[in-house]
Amino acid sequence: MDISITLDSAVTPNRVLLGTAEQAPANLSSEDTRLWESFLKKDKDSFELKDWNGIVLLVRLKEDAEWIRNQGATFRDKLDPDAEAMSVFGSSDATFDFLEGFLLASYQFDKYLKEKKSFALNSVHCTQGFSQQKADELNHIVRAVSWARDMVNEPVSFLTAEQLAEEIRALASETALHVNVLGKSQIESLKMGGLLAVNQGSIDPPTFTIAEYKPENARNEKPIVLVGKGVVYDTGGLSLKPTPNSMDCMKSDMGGAACMAGAIYLAALQKLPLHIIALIPATDNRPGLNAYAPGDIVTMFDGTTVEVLNTDAEGRMILADALAYSAKYDPELVMDAATLTGAAHRAIGDKAVISMGNADDKAFETLETSGYEVHERVVRFPFWDDYLEEMKSTIADLNNLGGPTAGMITAGKFLEHFVNAPYIHMDIAGPAWLNKQNTYRTKGGSGAGVRLVYQFLKNYANDK
Length: 464
Hints:
Number of domains: 2
Number of strands: 20
Radius of gyration: 23 Å
Structural class: alpha/beta
Shape: elongated
Distance between the termini: 32 Å
């Protein structure tokens, strides 16, 4: 959904004026200057005027990027769907934030609708302070988040593991990404026992997708490896989920895969100076055929044996193989994202991402700062070795289910066992799927994590 962003001062019927009492928007017409001066006399943060020809929104800026994004999302709701153009007058940063909220709120998943509600908007005029570089970054962010939302919103009747791999491969055609997709026979030859075990109940084969972005000016000698959970649909397997408010939204269980694929795609579009690899293990989890069962012992890619106590703890089984595989690249950092536990959702709801791991404090500080910058906030949980005790089995090296408390942490400690490099684990179970729209975060797949991981990589590169 690219919108043509023109760097000029055109005055269209639909206009947004962003400024402060001290700094009025630049390049206003005499009419809009009069409107702005009148607005400043009102005790309001924003004020809108409508006439037969369009809408004018006047906004008194706050030092809060998220508040400005939300103003953009609100304007999307009020703008006539048939409007073809709009103008934004304001500083570069304010314009970027406003349009980010506006454009992300414009997302629609209407592939399966007979009657589609389309937006006619095709061009946005911005004052000269807004650069082409910022315009491109804005469109790239919206494109990547929209792709991730599409993937999460697609039903498994379309988005099998093989189709997810093809969708990721298609991203590479417009970037410097190199994508290699391993099929079932290759996964078997690698002895990825976790991914194969979860796939045993499905008639559709698993995939293991490797996407690599390696620019000539990479500032890191060793790559950053991103790993995303790609369970395209999760029934719970033989440990079957209840249907209401559980299985009915389980097409979203590949939100981590959408996050990491979207993030490396965005990094490639933006030509970040980092060597990045994304690993996406993918399958559905069903109770059919020769489905793996509680009590089974599975030998993982790295030789670790795992006693299966619950087949609905499948995400960690496929992630573990991918995390162990990451050692092949001798990475300087491994980061994963997964809709992993209900415990994470219950702990902090859909307002933030839970993180934990053994990477140094600087990496977590960069992640936390990045989260505040894009308002995909991150809460770091403890990661003490005590929590690993619950994951030990008496008949295998590990089991796949912790106790009744702190499930998000015991799951993270299970995963840490398979990683050799500094490690950050992110549980995005809360924000990845929304039951109702929250300003520019749309109902259903929210694209959670794409902007967060991209901002982290951007800041990480700047710190090099």
